[in-house]
Design a protein that fits this description.
The protein contains eleven helices and 13 strands. The chain has helices at residues 45-52, 74-79, 96-106, 111-122, 140-152, 170-185, 197-203, 221-228, 264-275, 292-300, 304-312; strands at residues 7-16, 19-29, 34-38, 60-65, 81-84, 158-162, 189-193, 206-211, 214-220, 232-237, 250-253, 256-260, 282-288. Helix 3 (96-106) crosses helix 4 (111-122). The chain is elongated. The chain starts with 6 loop residues before the first strand and ends with a helix.
Amino acid sequence: MPTEPALAMRGITKRYGPVTALHEVDLDIAPGEIVGLLGHNGAGKTTLMSIVAGLLRPDNGQVRVLGKDPVREPDEARRGLGLAPQELGIYPPLTVRQNLLFFTELAGLRGRAAERRIEEVAEPLDLTGLLGRRAGRLSGGEQRRVHTAIALVHRPPLLLLDEPTAGVDVQTREKLLSMVRTLAAGGVAVCYSTHYLPEVETLEGSVAVLSGGRMVARGTLKELIRQYGDSGVELTFSGGPPDLHLDWPVMRDGKVLRITVEQPHLAVPRVMEALGDAAGELVNLRVVHPSLDSVFLRVTGRRYDALAEEATA
Ligand code: ATP
């Protein structure tokens, strides 16, 4: 018997005045599935999560969180989900334990049961030693871990993490990724938005790509790479790229030329020959193999590292 999805979205449209932030978006997430939600700034990721969490109403379409409608049955739907939005939601004057206790009590736990639950969420996020510290005095990465722990104290079967690793160091990132994997292995459905494609590869989840409010790709990593993962040669020049006459498709993007070819390493000598004198202006040559990077380029028209730069700017 097929399991009911933890999240089911059908035909979701959301407008902010003249801006259509989401356009007939469908998204299902099964229990235990991790979905890497990708897209450039303004693609609609936060809007999508806010609709799932019942913080925004869609103009059209249907959402079900564990079978509940976040608009009509907000309390029931909310009980089943944990949301860690982009903006930190911690109480700086309180200790980490008091922050967690507040939300544990909201979930109906008291006394020893509440303490046990706090220890349970603190451990994988490496917060155990920080429980007595004032939240406002912690580092940015530590605060982000507290923020994530808050989303988890009521053991939600559906977890929405909106850029949980934005601005954190490598160690914190590893901890968060490992925690997400453990939760998914225990059956939690996770929607994970990020500007870092390698994280999605590490999580071995499936992928959903939003572009201009439309879901332009959805599937497992393998499926998408098979369907869209071009290989090729990418040339970066110091100035405007020359005109190249080759048998393969050549795409221009500022100072970059992308040549789509099945066996890029074999094509490099031909490309160099075609460059002639213009080779003097070449500052970088990259062989691109089919990967999430090339999938992203094909479905959105832009590279992902441009987007990681935007995210850290
Ligand atoms: P980022 O990666 O920058 O967080 P995002 O993919 O989360 O972006 P959203 O925040 O969902 O994107 O925004 C989608 C679109 O809707 C953008 O064009 C944005 O400017 C617009 N938008 C979002 N919130 C509002 C609002 N409250 N009023 C008007 N326009 C909005």
